């Protein structure tokens, strides 16, 4: 894989009609400085608003991935981004005079060829790879979608599609080397749909720019002559040019690969993964992926990346089974002896869950008076340990935690189930329930040897320190 960031040597442009909007658009790829990423610029809108191609800007996933800011959108970004990601371009300014990139032939190949003609230029800055060192999973049981990222010091991906439709059947495809395989084996794979879907999509006004030349239409139903006439009218096509193909494809169009639909799903996955904003080192396995599931998977990758960024900021020494040790915790929290009541963080899912460990010893100062001859950890201090654990979960989004402080607003439903004694190891789990701006609600539970000893619902807010 490449070491340095890459941009273009010169501009490259293409023109055509958008698949879903049916609008004419000229798209121009331009060089960009290191660290710029991918940004779409709508030159047809007043002040030419800029929309970074990032997962937080995704606004729609219906038959394509749409990004937007302030009501200005760019539709069907995946084929453009797939070309950039597949060719390992890191920084590119993408100017458009319409709302949707031209569909061209329904693949990424025209965009890839334009980028190659423009040429590539290595930049001084190193690539910012996201290195996956644990299994990251996304599952959608209702739609039978599974996407998993596994540790690998490289990038490869395998996709399986199975629509339980005999017209397509089950297919799979794998990409193992971007430099050797992307341009010839995946960029040319075209978008596809089933004949049974076309009429509904046309009726919804979703495929205004679609025709038999920019999509593979798989025949999964019989159609009478009258139905063909209606379909041609909705698509703005001469129905005489619509033929139920003998090869199972509308108009007998030949597939570029036997498993072209599976390859196109892999291409879509690459385009959606580009929204992470950094290349990935991992093995990605995807079963029945689509844009909605791809986007949710990338959101999980982003949380992992944000957590790793936080870990790099505070945890300088990597330790097995530890996310943040006591040295990192002291950089994140203002508490000190005798009121720092957590020793390490062993699990941390950004904005979702955190697990802390508190080793309870007889040396704790509170055991002198609580109670002589019968030492028991005060329940209020177990709650405080929970609060400190939640405080780290709340401060994770702050660039400078030294300028912020957590104030608790409410403690509810506190229950103490069993006493905590010297020698016990307190395992504290915090789960985010709701986060609105600077106010957070989370549920906390504390366990000793797997048994619940305390639980509570906590609410807190993050504020700037007085004087800042």
UniProtKB/TrEMBL annotation:
Keywords: Cytoplasm, Hydrolase, Lipid A biosynthesis, Lipid biosynthesis, Lipid metabolism, Lyase, Metal-binding, Zinc
Location in the cell: Cytoplasm
Catalysed reactions listed for this entry: a (3R)-hydroxyacyl-[ACP] = a (2E)-enoyl-[ACP] + H2O; a UDP-3-O-[(3R)-3-hydroxyacyl]-N-acetyl-alpha-D-glucosamine + H2O = a UDP-3-O-[(3R)-3-hydroxyacyl]-alpha-D-glucosamine + acetate
GO molecular function: (3R)-hydroxyacyl-[acyl-carrier-protein] dehydratase activity; metal ion binding; UDP-3-O-acyl-N-acetylglucosamine deacetylase activity
E.C. no: 4.2.1.59, 3.5.1.108
Coiled-coil regions, chain positions: none
Entry cofactors: Zn(2+)
One Gene Ontology term, aspect cellular component: cytoplasm
UniProt-annotated binding residues for Zn(2+): 79, 264, 268
CDD domains, per the entry: FabZ
Pathway in which the depicted protein is active: Glycolipid biosynthesis; lipid IV(A) biosynthesis; lipid IV(A) from (3R)-3-hydroxytetradecanoyl-[acyl-carrier-protein] and UDP-N-acetyl-alpha-D-glucosamine: step 2/6
Residues at the active site: 291 (proton donor), 370
Xref: Pfam families: FabA, LpxC
InterPro entries tied to this protein: FabA_FabZ (IPR013114), FabZ (IPR010084), HotDog_dom_sf (IPR029069), Ribosomal_Su5_D2-typ_SF (IPR020568), UDP-acyl_GlcNac_deAcase (IPR004463), UDP-acyl_GlcNac_deAcase_C (IPR011334), UDP-acyl_N-AcGlcN_deAcase_N (IPR015870)
Alphabetical GO biological process terms: fatty acid biosynthetic process; lipid A biosynthetic process
KW Lipid biosynthesis (keyword) present: yes
Major subcellular site: cytoplasm
SUPFAM superfamilies: Ribosomal protein S5 domain 2-like, Thioesterase/thiol ester dehydrase-isomerase
Family per similarity comment: Belongs to the thioester dehydratase family. FabZ subfamily. Belongs to the LpxC family.
Chain's role: Catalyzes the hydrolysis of UDP-3-O-myristoyl-N-acetylglucosamine to form UDP-3-O-myristoylglucosamine and acetate, the committed step in lipid A biosynthesis.
Protein's name according to its UniProt entry: Multifunctional fusion protein
UniProt organism field: Chlorobium phaeovibrioides
Taxon lineage: Bacteria, Pseudomonadati, Chlorobiota, Chlorobiia, Chlorobiales
Gene responsible for this protein: fabZ
